Amino acid sequence: MKLNYLNSSAKLLLLSMISFRSLAVHADLTKREAFDILRSQGVKWQMIRTISEDADIKVQETNAALRPKMQLILKQFYARINPIQYGGDEKLVIDQVGFGTTGVEFSWPLLDPSARSEAKIAVIKAASSRQQVLQNETDLTALMLFEYLNVQRLRRQILVMDANIERSQLIFKLAKSKNKVGAGIPLDIARAKNLYEFDRLKKINAYNKYLKAQHDLATTLGLEKLKTSLAPLVAKKLAPEQLRELLDRSLEIRPDLKTAELNVAAAHEFVDDSKKIIFPKLTLLGEVGTTQPTLLGLPARTATGLVGLVLTIPIESGGLITAKQREALSLSNKADLQLKQTKLEILSQVKEAMEQIISTEEALGATENYVATVKEENEIAEKRFFNGVSNILDYTSSHANFSAAQDTLTEAMFNLEAAKLNYYRTLGSFEGYFKE
Questions:
Q1: Cα dihedral: 229, 413, 136, 332 (round 10)
Q2: CA distances from 260 to 264, 271, 280, 343 (A)
Q3: Residue 391 in contact with residue 178, Cβ under 8 Å?
Q4: What DSSP state is assigned to residue 230?
Q5: Are residues 233 and 303 in the same domain?
Q6: Is residue 15, in this structure, part of any structural domain at all?
Protein backbone atom coordinates (compact mmCIF):
# COMPACT_ATOMS: atom_id res chain seq x y z
CA MET A 1 0.00 0.00 0.00
CA LYS A 2 2.82 2.35 0.90
CA LEU A 3 4.60 1.56 -2.37
CA ASN A 4 1.46 2.30 -4.39
CA TYR A 5 1.08 5.61 -2.56
CA LEU A 6 4.67 6.60 -3.39
CA ASN A 7 4.21 5.64 -7.04
CA SER A 8 1.04 7.69 -7.22
CA SER A 9 2.78 10.67 -5.64
CA ALA A 10 5.68 10.42 -8.09
CA LYS A 11 3.29 10.30 -11.05
CA LEU A 12 1.39 13.31 -9.72
CA LEU A 13 4.64 15.25 -9.30
CA LEU A 14 5.73 14.31 -12.83
CA LEU A 15 2.40 15.39 -14.30
CA SER A 16 2.63 18.68 -12.40
CA MET A 17 6.10 19.34 -13.82
CA ILE A 18 4.90 18.55 -17.34
CA SER A 19 1.91 20.83 -16.90
CA PHE A 20 4.00 23.77 -15.70
CA ARG A 21 6.49 23.19 -18.51
CA SER A 22 3.65 23.18 -21.03
CA LEU A 23 2.32 26.44 -19.67
CA ALA A 24 5.77 28.00 -19.97
CA VAL A 25 6.19 26.90 -23.59
CA HIS A 26 2.64 27.51 -24.85
CA ALA A 27 2.04 31.04 -23.65
CA ASP A 28 -1.05 32.98 -24.72
CA LEU A 29 -0.93 34.45 -28.21
CA THR A 30 -0.96 38.24 -27.89
CA LYS A 31 -2.41 40.69 -30.38
CA ARG A 32 1.07 41.83 -31.42
CA GLU A 33 2.18 38.23 -32.01
CA ALA A 34 -0.94 37.55 -34.07
CA PHE A 35 -0.15 40.63 -36.17
CA ASP A 36 3.41 39.39 -36.74
CA ILE A 37 2.04 36.04 -37.91
CA LEU A 38 -0.36 37.81 -40.26
CA ARG A 39 2.49 39.74 -41.88
CA SER A 40 4.78 36.73 -42.21
CA GLN A 41 2.37 33.92 -43.09
CA GLY A 42 -0.92 35.52 -44.11
CA VAL A 43 -1.80 34.72 -47.73
CA LYS A 44 -4.17 37.69 -47.93
CA TRP A 45 -1.38 39.97 -46.72
CA GLN A 46 0.94 38.71 -49.46
CA MET A 47 -1.77 39.13 -52.09
CA ILE A 48 -2.20 42.77 -51.08
CA ARG A 49 1.51 43.31 -51.65
CA THR A 50 1.13 42.40 -55.33
CA ILE A 51 -0.80 45.64 -55.94
CA SER A 52 2.30 47.79 -55.50
CA GLU A 53 4.39 45.31 -57.50
CA ASP A 54 2.08 45.74 -60.50
CA ALA A 55 2.35 49.52 -60.17
CA ASP A 56 6.16 49.35 -60.09
CA ILE A 57 6.11 47.26 -63.27
CA LYS A 58 3.96 49.94 -64.91
CA VAL A 59 6.58 52.55 -63.98
CA GLN A 60 9.26 50.50 -65.69
CA GLU A 61 7.11 50.14 -68.80
CA THR A 62 6.48 53.87 -69.12
CA ASN A 63 10.13 54.73 -68.49
CA ALA A 64 11.09 52.37 -71.31
CA ALA A 65 9.53 54.79 -73.80
CA LEU A 66 12.24 57.36 -72.95
CA ARG A 67 15.22 55.04 -73.28
CA PRO A 68 17.22 53.87 -76.32
CA LYS A 69 16.00 50.74 -78.06
CA MET A 70 18.18 48.37 -80.10
CA GLN A 71 17.46 45.20 -82.00
CA LEU A 72 19.64 42.82 -83.99
CA ILE A 73 18.37 42.13 -87.51
CA LEU A 74 19.40 39.15 -89.65
CA LYS A 75 18.04 39.06 -93.22
CA GLN A 76 18.67 36.60 -96.04
CA PHE A 77 17.14 36.74 -99.54
CA TYR A 78 17.56 34.18 -102.34
CA ALA A 79 17.15 34.54 -106.12
CA ARG A 80 17.65 32.19 -109.08
CA ILE A 81 19.84 33.41 -111.98
CA ASN A 82 20.24 31.89 -115.45
CA PRO A 83 23.90 30.83 -115.78
CA ILE A 84 23.80 31.36 -119.56
CA GLN A 85 24.08 35.09 -118.93
CA TYR A 86 27.55 34.43 -117.62
CA GLY A 87 28.71 32.12 -120.43
CA GLY A 88 27.72 28.88 -118.82
CA ASP A 89 26.23 25.76 -120.31
CA GLU A 90 22.57 26.12 -121.06
CA LYS A 91 21.96 22.63 -119.75
CA LEU A 92 23.18 23.57 -116.30
CA VAL A 93 20.62 23.90 -113.54
CA ILE A 94 19.73 27.47 -112.70
CA ASP A 95 22.04 28.67 -109.91
CA GLN A 96 20.87 30.26 -106.65
CA VAL A 97 22.23 33.60 -105.50
CA GLY A 98 21.80 34.83 -101.92
CA PHE A 99 21.86 38.36 -100.48
CA GLY A 100 22.27 38.64 -96.71
CA THR A 101 22.16 41.59 -94.32
CA THR A 102 23.24 41.71 -90.69
CA GLY A 103 22.73 44.89 -88.73
CA VAL A 104 21.61 46.65 -85.56
CA GLU A 105 18.70 49.07 -85.62
CA PHE A 106 18.29 51.61 -82.85
CA SER A 107 16.01 54.48 -81.88
CA TRP A 108 16.27 57.07 -79.13
CA PRO A 109 13.49 59.54 -78.32
CA LEU A 110 15.34 62.80 -77.75
CA LEU A 111 12.20 64.87 -77.20
CA ASP A 112 8.84 63.37 -76.18
CA PRO A 113 6.90 65.57 -73.70
CA SER A 114 3.88 63.28 -73.71
CA ALA A 115 5.93 60.20 -72.81
CA ARG A 116 7.61 62.07 -69.98
CA SER A 117 4.23 63.09 -68.59
CA GLU A 118 3.01 59.51 -68.78
CA ALA A 119 6.12 58.44 -66.87
CA LYS A 120 5.36 61.01 -64.15
CA ILE A 121 1.77 59.80 -63.97
CA ALA A 122 2.99 56.22 -63.57
CA VAL A 123 5.27 57.24 -60.69
CA ILE A 124 2.40 59.06 -58.96
CA LYS A 125 0.08 56.10 -59.47
CA ALA A 126 2.74 53.78 -58.06
CA ALA A 127 2.91 55.94 -54.93
CA SER A 128 -0.89 55.89 -54.80
CA SER A 129 -0.85 52.11 -55.10
CA ARG A 130 1.54 51.87 -52.18
CA GLN A 131 -0.86 53.96 -50.12
CA GLN A 132 -3.68 51.70 -51.23
CA VAL A 133 -1.62 48.76 -50.05
CA LEU A 134 -1.27 50.41 -46.64
CA GLN A 135 -5.03 51.00 -46.51
CA ASN A 136 -5.77 47.39 -47.45
CA GLU A 137 -3.27 46.21 -44.85
CA THR A 138 -5.01 48.40 -42.26
CA ASP A 139 -8.38 46.90 -43.17
CA LEU A 140 -7.00 43.36 -43.06
CA THR A 141 -5.36 44.03 -39.69
CA ALA A 142 -8.67 45.35 -38.36
CA LEU A 143 -10.43 42.22 -39.60
CA MET A 144 -7.86 39.96 -37.94
CA LEU A 145 -8.04 41.86 -34.64
CA PHE A 146 -11.84 41.74 -34.66
CA GLU A 147 -11.71 37.97 -35.20
CA TYR A 148 -9.15 37.78 -32.38
CA LEU A 149 -11.50 39.78 -30.16
CA ASN A 150 -14.43 37.54 -31.07
CA VAL A 151 -12.47 34.45 -30.00
CA GLN A 152 -11.66 36.20 -26.70
CA ARG A 153 -15.33 37.03 -26.15
CA LEU A 154 -16.53 33.48 -26.79
CA ARG A 155 -13.76 32.04 -24.64
CA ARG A 156 -14.78 34.24 -21.72
CA GLN A 157 -18.42 33.25 -22.19
CA ILE A 158 -17.46 29.57 -22.04
CA LEU A 159 -15.45 30.06 -18.84
CA VAL A 160 -18.40 31.85 -17.24
CA MET A 161 -20.74 29.11 -18.45
CA ASP A 162 -18.51 26.44 -16.90
CA ALA A 163 -18.93 28.12 -13.53
CA ASN A 164 -22.68 28.44 -14.08
CA ILE A 165 -22.95 24.76 -14.98
CA GLU A 166 -21.15 23.78 -11.79
CA ARG A 167 -23.52 25.95 -9.77
CA SER A 168 -26.68 24.69 -11.51
CA GLN A 169 -25.45 21.11 -11.17
CA LEU A 170 -25.02 21.68 -7.44
CA ILE A 171 -28.55 23.07 -7.23
CA PHE A 172 -29.84 20.00 -9.05
CA LYS A 173 -28.03 17.66 -6.64
CA LEU A 174 -29.32 19.55 -3.61
CA ALA A 175 -32.86 19.38 -4.92
CA LYS A 176 -32.60 15.62 -5.37
CA SER A 177 -31.04 15.22 -1.92
CA LYS A 178 -33.89 17.12 -0.28
CA ASN A 179 -36.39 15.02 -2.14
CA LYS A 180 -34.78 11.82 -0.88
CA VAL A 181 -35.19 12.86 2.74
CA GLY A 182 -38.73 14.01 2.12
CA ALA A 183 -37.98 17.73 2.35
CA GLY A 184 -38.03 18.42 -1.37
CA ILE A 185 -40.68 19.06 -3.98
CA PRO A 186 -40.73 17.16 -7.33
CA LEU A 187 -41.38 20.41 -9.15
CA ASP A 188 -38.18 21.85 -7.68
CA ILE A 189 -36.22 18.93 -9.07
CA ALA A 190 -37.66 19.58 -12.53
CA ARG A 191 -36.84 23.26 -12.30
CA ALA A 192 -33.28 22.56 -11.17
CA LYS A 193 -32.79 20.02 -13.95
CA ASN A 194 -34.14 22.44 -16.55
CA LEU A 195 -31.73 25.10 -15.30
CA TYR A 196 -28.81 22.68 -15.53
CA GLU A 197 -29.74 21.47 -19.02
CA PHE A 198 -30.26 25.04 -20.21
CA ASP A 199 -26.77 26.03 -19.01
CA ARG A 200 -25.30 22.99 -20.79
CA LEU A 201 -27.14 23.87 -24.00
CA LYS A 202 -25.84 27.44 -23.85
CA LYS A 203 -22.29 26.18 -23.51
CA ILE A 204 -22.65 23.75 -26.42
CA ASN A 205 -23.89 26.53 -28.70
CA ALA A 206 -21.18 28.90 -27.50
CA TYR A 207 -18.50 26.26 -27.99
CA ASN A 208 -19.58 25.64 -31.59
CA LYS A 209 -19.33 29.37 -32.25
CA TYR A 210 -15.95 29.38 -30.52
CA LEU A 211 -14.59 26.66 -32.81
CA LYS A 212 -15.78 28.53 -35.91
CA ALA A 213 -14.29 31.79 -34.64
CA GLN A 214 -10.96 30.03 -34.08
CA HIS A 215 -11.08 28.63 -37.61
CA ASP A 216 -11.82 32.07 -39.11
CA LEU A 217 -8.92 33.64 -37.22
CA ALA A 218 -6.53 30.85 -38.20
CA THR A 219 -7.52 31.21 -41.87
CA THR A 220 -6.89 34.95 -41.82
CA LEU A 221 -3.51 34.38 -40.16
CA GLY A 222 -2.57 31.81 -42.80
CA LEU A 223 -2.53 28.91 -40.31
CA GLU A 224 -4.22 25.53 -40.46
CA LYS A 225 -5.30 25.93 -36.84
CA LEU A 226 -4.48 27.90 -33.72
CA LYS A 227 -1.88 26.05 -31.68
CA THR A 228 -2.06 28.30 -28.63
CA SER A 229 -4.79 30.02 -26.66
CA LEU A 230 -5.37 33.76 -26.79
CA ALA A 231 -4.84 36.31 -24.08
CA PRO A 232 -7.97 36.73 -21.90
CA LEU A 233 -10.46 39.46 -22.70
CA VAL A 234 -9.71 42.63 -20.74
CA ALA A 235 -11.51 45.94 -21.32
CA LYS A 236 -9.52 49.11 -20.61
CA LYS A 237 -10.79 52.64 -20.92
CA LEU A 238 -8.89 55.20 -23.00
CA ALA A 239 -7.48 58.35 -21.49
CA PRO A 240 -9.16 61.61 -22.63
CA GLU A 241 -5.95 62.86 -24.28
CA GLN A 242 -5.92 59.78 -26.52
CA LEU A 243 -9.29 60.76 -27.91
CA ARG A 244 -8.23 64.35 -28.54
CA GLU A 245 -5.32 63.33 -30.75
CA LEU A 246 -7.54 61.28 -33.06
CA LEU A 247 -8.68 64.08 -35.35
CA ASP A 248 -5.27 65.64 -36.04
CA ARG A 249 -3.39 62.38 -36.48
CA SER A 250 -6.00 60.78 -38.72
CA LEU A 251 -5.69 63.65 -41.20
CA GLU A 252 -1.93 63.14 -41.20
CA ILE A 253 -1.46 59.38 -41.53
CA ARG A 254 -4.65 58.00 -43.09
CA PRO A 255 -3.54 56.07 -46.22
CA ASP A 256 -6.86 56.57 -48.02
CA LEU A 257 -6.51 60.36 -47.70
CA LYS A 258 -2.98 60.24 -49.10
CA THR A 259 -4.24 58.03 -51.92
CA ALA A 260 -6.90 60.59 -52.80
CA GLU A 261 -4.30 63.38 -52.77
CA LEU A 262 -1.99 61.41 -55.07
CA ASN A 263 -4.90 60.66 -57.40
CA VAL A 264 -5.51 64.40 -57.67
CA ALA A 265 -1.85 64.97 -58.53
CA ALA A 266 -1.98 62.24 -61.18
CA ALA A 267 -5.17 63.68 -62.67
CA HIS A 268 -3.68 67.17 -62.90
CA GLU A 269 -0.58 65.70 -64.56
CA PHE A 270 -2.89 63.90 -66.98
CA VAL A 271 -4.46 67.24 -67.89
CA ASP A 272 -1.01 68.68 -68.61
CA ASP A 273 -0.18 65.60 -70.63
CA SER A 274 -3.28 66.03 -72.79
CA LYS A 275 -2.06 69.52 -73.71
CA LYS A 276 1.31 68.12 -74.80
CA ILE A 277 -0.20 65.77 -77.38
CA ILE A 278 0.33 68.40 -80.09
CA PHE A 279 3.93 69.05 -79.01
CA PRO A 280 6.62 67.92 -81.51
CA LYS A 281 8.54 64.69 -80.97
CA LEU A 282 12.16 64.22 -82.01
CA THR A 283 13.64 60.75 -82.38
CA LEU A 284 17.11 59.59 -83.39
CA LEU A 285 16.99 56.57 -85.71
CA GLY A 286 19.84 54.51 -87.12
CA GLU A 287 21.07 51.25 -88.53
CA VAL A 288 24.61 49.87 -88.62
CA GLY A 289 25.54 46.56 -90.27
CA THR A 290 27.04 44.69 -93.21
CA THR A 291 25.66 43.34 -96.48
CA GLN A 292 26.96 40.05 -97.85
CA PRO A 293 25.92 39.46 -101.49
CA THR A 294 26.75 36.05 -102.98
CA LEU A 295 26.92 35.63 -106.74
CA LEU A 296 27.94 32.29 -108.25
CA GLY A 297 29.81 31.44 -105.09
CA LEU A 298 31.84 34.65 -105.08
CA PRO A 299 31.20 36.38 -101.73
CA ALA A 300 31.56 40.08 -101.12
CA ARG A 301 31.12 42.23 -97.95
CA THR A 302 29.88 45.79 -97.88
CA ALA A 303 29.50 47.91 -94.75
CA THR A 304 26.31 49.93 -94.42
CA GLY A 305 25.09 52.55 -91.99
CA LEU A 306 22.27 55.04 -91.59
CA VAL A 307 21.60 57.66 -88.95
CA GLY A 308 18.81 60.20 -89.07
CA LEU A 309 16.41 62.40 -87.10
CA VAL A 310 12.63 62.09 -87.24
CA LEU A 311 10.49 65.07 -86.30
CA THR A 312 6.80 64.43 -85.67
CA ILE A 313 4.27 67.23 -85.15
CA PRO A 314 0.72 65.95 -84.47
CA ILE A 315 -2.00 68.17 -85.89
CA GLU A 316 -5.26 66.27 -85.59
CA SER A 317 -6.19 62.64 -85.25
CA GLY A 318 -9.84 62.36 -86.09
CA GLY A 319 -10.95 64.01 -82.86
CA LEU A 320 -8.84 61.72 -80.67
CA ILE A 321 -6.76 64.59 -79.30
CA THR A 322 -9.84 66.58 -78.29
CA ALA A 323 -11.45 63.50 -76.72
CA LYS A 324 -8.35 62.75 -74.66
CA GLN A 325 -8.23 66.33 -73.38
CA ARG A 326 -11.89 66.16 -72.32
CA GLU A 327 -11.27 62.82 -70.62
CA ALA A 328 -8.36 64.32 -68.69
CA LEU A 329 -10.49 67.22 -67.44
CA SER A 330 -13.26 64.84 -66.40
CA LEU A 331 -10.86 62.65 -64.43
CA SER A 332 -9.34 65.71 -62.77
CA ASN A 333 -12.74 66.95 -61.63
CA LYS A 334 -13.66 63.51 -60.29
CA ALA A 335 -10.37 63.28 -58.38
CA ASP A 336 -10.94 66.70 -56.78
CA LEU A 337 -14.44 65.70 -55.71
CA GLN A 338 -13.21 62.35 -54.38
CA LEU A 339 -10.60 64.12 -52.25
CA LYS A 340 -13.25 66.36 -50.72
CA GLN A 341 -15.52 63.36 -50.11
CA THR A 342 -12.68 61.41 -48.47
CA LYS A 343 -11.97 64.26 -46.05
CA LEU A 344 -15.66 64.50 -45.12
CA GLU A 345 -15.85 60.73 -44.57
CA ILE A 346 -12.77 60.77 -42.35
CA LEU A 347 -14.20 63.57 -40.22
CA SER A 348 -17.48 61.66 -39.93
CA GLN A 349 -15.66 58.43 -39.01
CA VAL A 350 -13.61 60.27 -36.38
CA LYS A 351 -16.72 61.75 -34.79
CA GLU A 352 -18.47 58.37 -34.81
CA ALA A 353 -15.43 56.60 -33.33
CA MET A 354 -15.14 59.11 -30.50
CA GLU A 355 -18.85 58.91 -29.68
CA GLN A 356 -18.71 55.12 -29.77
CA ILE A 357 -15.79 55.05 -27.34
CA ILE A 358 -17.57 57.34 -24.89
CA SER A 359 -20.90 55.48 -25.06
CA THR A 360 -19.36 52.00 -24.68
CA GLU A 361 -17.27 53.15 -21.72
CA GLU A 362 -20.42 54.44 -20.03
CA ALA A 363 -22.22 51.19 -20.85
CA LEU A 364 -19.39 49.13 -19.38
CA GLY A 365 -19.44 51.14 -16.16
CA ALA A 366 -23.20 50.74 -15.83
CA THR A 367 -22.96 47.02 -16.57
CA GLU A 368 -20.28 46.50 -13.94
CA ASN A 369 -22.51 48.16 -11.35
CA TYR A 370 -25.46 46.05 -12.47
CA VAL A 371 -23.47 42.81 -12.26
CA ALA A 372 -22.25 43.71 -8.77
CA THR A 373 -25.85 44.26 -7.64
CA VAL A 374 -27.12 41.03 -9.20
CA LYS A 375 -24.19 39.10 -7.73
CA GLU A 376 -25.03 40.42 -4.27
CA GLU A 377 -28.65 39.43 -4.76
CA ASN A 378 -27.60 35.97 -5.95
CA GLU A 379 -25.39 35.44 -2.89
CA ILE A 380 -28.29 36.36 -0.60
CA ALA A 381 -30.61 33.97 -2.45
CA GLU A 382 -27.99 31.23 -2.18
CA LYS A 383 -27.66 31.65 1.59
CA ARG A 384 -31.43 31.70 2.05
CA PHE A 385 -31.77 28.53 -0.01
CA PHE A 386 -29.07 26.63 1.89
CA ASN A 387 -30.56 27.78 5.19
CA GLY A 388 -33.96 26.49 4.10
CA VAL A 389 -35.56 29.93 4.27
CA SER A 390 -36.53 30.13 0.57
CA ASN A 391 -37.55 27.58 -2.04
CA ILE A 392 -35.56 26.57 -5.08
CA LEU A 393 -37.54 28.82 -7.43
CA ASP A 394 -36.06 31.93 -5.83
CA TYR A 395 -32.55 30.53 -6.12
CA THR A 396 -32.91 29.37 -9.74
CA SER A 397 -34.38 32.73 -10.73
CA SER A 398 -31.52 34.54 -9.03
CA HIS A 399 -29.01 32.22 -10.70
CA ALA A 400 -30.55 32.88 -14.14
CA ASN A 401 -30.42 36.63 -13.54
CA PHE A 402 -26.77 36.44 -12.51
CA SER A 403 -25.91 34.34 -15.56
CA ALA A 404 -27.62 36.84 -17.87
CA ALA A 405 -25.83 39.72 -16.12
CA GLN A 406 -22.47 38.04 -16.70
CA ASP A 407 -23.31 37.63 -20.40
CA THR A 408 -24.19 41.31 -20.51
CA LEU A 409 -20.84 42.17 -18.92
CA THR A 410 -18.96 40.10 -21.49
CA GLU A 411 -20.82 41.86 -24.31
CA ALA A 412 -20.08 45.26 -22.76
CA MET A 413 -16.37 44.41 -22.56
CA PHE A 414 -16.46 43.18 -26.15
CA ASN A 415 -18.25 46.32 -27.35
CA LEU A 416 -15.70 48.59 -25.69
CA GLU A 417 -12.75 46.71 -27.19
CA ALA A 418 -14.49 46.70 -30.59
CA ALA A 419 -15.00 50.46 -30.29
CA LYS A 420 -11.31 50.91 -29.46
CA LEU A 421 -10.41 48.73 -32.44
CA ASN A 422 -12.54 50.94 -34.68
CA TYR A 423 -10.91 53.98 -33.06
CA TYR A 424 -7.40 52.87 -34.02
CA ARG A 425 -8.55 51.82 -37.48
CA THR A 426 -9.96 55.31 -37.96
CA LEU A 427 -6.66 56.68 -36.75
CA GLY A 428 -4.84 54.63 -39.42
CA SER A 429 -2.43 52.90 -37.03
CA PHE A 430 -2.77 50.09 -34.47
CA GLU A 431 0.45 50.78 -32.58
CA GLY A 432 -1.43 52.25 -29.62
CA TYR A 433 -3.78 49.26 -29.57
CA PHE A 434 -0.88 46.79 -29.46
CA LYS A 435 0.73 48.62 -26.53
CA GLU A 436 -2.30 48.17 -24.28
A1: 180
A2: 6, 17, 33, 9
A3: no
A4: B
A5: no
A6: no
Assess whether 56 and 85 both reside in one domain. no
Residue 272 confidence (pLDDT):
79
Residues 215 and 353 in one domain: yes
> Which residues, other chains included, contact 234 with Cβ-Cβ below 8 Å and sequence gap of 6+?
413
Q: What is the DSSP letter of 211?
A: H
Residue-wise DSSP of 5-56 = HHHHHHHHHHHHHHHHHHHHHSPPBPHHHHHHHHHHH-HHHHHHHHHHHHHH
Number of structural domains (the chain) is: 2
Range of the domain at 53: 30-66+112-279+323-435
What are 379-409's pLDDT values in tens digits? 888 888 777 766 777 778 888 888 899 999 9
Nearest residue to 141 (alpha-carbon basis) of 345, 433, 348:
433
Which CATH number does the domain housing residue 331 bear?
Answer: 1.20.1600.10
Same domain? 252 vs 305: no
Tell me whether residue 216 is exposed, middle or buried, using C-beta atoms within 10 angstroms of its C-beta: 0 to 12, 13 to 18, 19 or more. middle
Residue 154 lies in a domain: yes
Distance CA 351, CA 345 (A): 10
Strand pairing report for 95-111 and 281-295: antiparallel
- Cβ neighbours, 10 Å, residue 370: 14
Q: For 186-204, write each residue's pLDDT tens digit.
A: 777 888 888 889 989 999 9
Identify whether 214 is part of a domain.
yes
pLDDT of residue 181: 62
Contact partners, residue 303, CB within 8 Å, separation at least 6: 289, 290, 291
In this predicted model, which residue has the larger pLDDT, 113 or 135? 135
Going by C-alpha positions, the residue among 234, 249, 246, 243 that lies closest to residue 358 is: 243
Q: Say which amino acid occupies 164.
A: N
User: Would residue 182 be called left, alpha or beta, if left means φ above 0 and alpha means ψ between -120 and 50 degrees?
Assistant: left
